[in-house]
Specification:
Blueprint lengths: L3 H8 L2 H10 L9 H11 L11 H4 L6 H12 L10 H4 L5 E8 L7 E9 L4 E3 L8 E3 L3 E9 L4 E11 L4 E16 L11 E17 L5 E16 L18 E14 L10 E11 L9 E15 L2 E12 L9 E2 L11 E2 L1 E12 L4 E13 L11 E13 L4 E10 L2 E8 L7
Antiparallel strand pairs: 1-2, 2-5, 3-4, 5-6, 6-7, 7-8, 8-9, 9-10, 10-11, 11-12, 12-13, 13-16, 14-15, 16-17, 17-18, 18-19, 19-20
Length: 433
């Protein structure tokens, strides 16, 4: 695992301490603590004089099976169309979404991911600005997750998404540990198609908060990122004298950086959008003064747009660009996030990709889709023009499992790198609220 003395330098950072404190702040969107206490006091009955206990309360009547069935029907079936739907259960105080996701990522092999998502409230619909379509604001939510695969990789962690003041304040925080067993193909494919195995025990900590700018669709806020790495590589498959393409100092190291994020969000809802645009640009600086071992800059941009073609047909387009400075360690290089391409195989200082998706609702519950994407990596921005395209594409199906939340689950089959890969998807293949 990551060096404890190194990790402590990052945790003692005031930014990390404040962010960790913020992770524990929960409550329904737009509700202040004083309002909640006052509301509970107003709803509580005045103290009553003590009365004898009713004997019938000591021996309650048996539960009516019909009433119990009605409760189950309300929790797990939609009252509109009678289909299986988890909206009622998710809206309860104990409501959570259990997810067991088979892992078929080529980088780590077959495995299983387990997660519990707790929703701290119900979605809220607000009027669109300037007469636009009304929007769905998701409640705050917390996710506990763990995963393990056949090649020995495993990970566990917790993440929280805070949504307050009708979505005007948005917070994302996560902490996790991962024992990774991966393949290294070299920076920019420098190993000539060969790969070497490596293990990396990583501590990951991310915090960010964004504030709406006036009444616009723009959000601005700071972010903090920490990575602790303890890696081991097997260079024996390489010919004698061949450079593996990384520095020895990268193996047992850590990065710590502060950044600023400017985002734009006009999506009608976060999990299955039908119209609108979401864009996010981030600039960050990593420095040893913040508890890291490297000094370098990083920048990234992601833009996702949804265009309704017909009532049940939506075209989605996505573009990504990422840059990490020359001093970035090998585990922080820019890479491609395209369904069908192996994670971590194509990495370099610069990365860019374009993707598209066509989605058709064949019924109120079921959706089919097709997608395609390509990406390039290079050591210099100018070299991206001549870099080799890496292609992938495929299709999938979705089921609307929680109508009130607009939450869909399904499966995608993607083909890239000469192999087919199956992805189990919650929401869309792109959006992370």
């Amino acid at each position: 695992m990551a060096n404890p003395s190194r990790a402590w330098r990052a945790w003692r950072s005031p930014v990390a301490a404040v962010a960790a404190f913020a992770l524990g702040q929960e409550g329904p969107p737009g509700e202040r603590a004083d309002e909640r206490v006052a509301g509970e006091a107003a709803e509580s009955p005045a103290p009553q004089a003590q009365t004898p206990i009713d004997p019938d309360l000591e021996n309650p009547a048996p539960i009516d099976p019909a009433a119990e069935d009605h409760t189950l029907e309300r929790l797990f079936f939609d009252q509109t169309d009678g289909a299986f739907d988890a909206s009622g259960f998710l809206a309860t105080r104990t409501g959570f979404l259990p997810v067991a996701v088979p892992i078929t990522e080529p980088a780590v092999g077959l495995g299983l991911g387990l997660g519990l998502t707790f929703f701290h409230g119900k979605p809220k619909v607000i009027d669109g600005r300037g007469g636009d379509t009304p929007r769905v604001i998701m409640p705050s939510s917390t996710v506990l997750f763990g995963a393990a695969t056949e090649n020995g990789t495993w990970a566990a962690g917790v993440a929280h998404m805070g949504v307050w003041n009708d979505g005007r304040i948005r917070y994302n925080g996560s902490v996790g540990y991962a024992a990774l067993h991966l393949k290294w193909y070299g920076q920019g494919g420098s190993l000539g198609g060969r790969s070497i195995d490596y293990e990396n025990d990583m501590l990951l900590f991310d915090q960010r908060i964004r504030f709406q700018l006036g009444q616009s669709d723009f959000f601005l806020g700071p972010r903090y990122s920490f990575r602790g790495s303890n890696a081991r590589l097997d260079t024996s498959p390489l010919p004698p004298g061949q450079d593996p393409g990384f520095d020895e100092g990268d193996l047992d190291s850590q990065t710590s950086g502060l950044g600023l994020t400017l985002s734009y969000d006009s999506l009608d809802q976060p999990f299955s959008p039908t119209r609108g645009f979401r864009g996010e640009a981030t600039g960050a600086w990593f420095d040893d003064a913040l508890g890291g071992d490297f000094d370098y800059g990083a920048a990234s941009f992601t833009g996702i747009g949804y265009i309704p073609i017909e009532e049940r047909v939506v075209l989605a387009l996505r573009g990504d660009f990422a840059f990490n400075g020359d001093e970035a360690p090998f585990y922080q290089l820019s890479g491609l996030d395209v369904r069908g391409l192996e994670r971590g195989r194509y990495v370099d200082d610069f990365a860019a990709s374009l993707q598209s998706e066509l989605r058709v609702d064949v019924s109120d519950r079921w959706t089919v889709l097709g997608f395609a994407g390509l990406g390039r990596v290079a050591g210099d921005f100018d070299d991206l023009i001549e870099a080799t395209d890496q292609w992938a594409g495929g299709g999938g199906v979705r089921y609307l499992i929680a109508r009130e939340y607009g939450l869909r689950m399904g499966v995608d089959v993607a083909y890239g790198d000469g192999d087919a890969t199956v992805y189990i998807t919650v929401g869309t293949g792109w959006i992370r609220p």
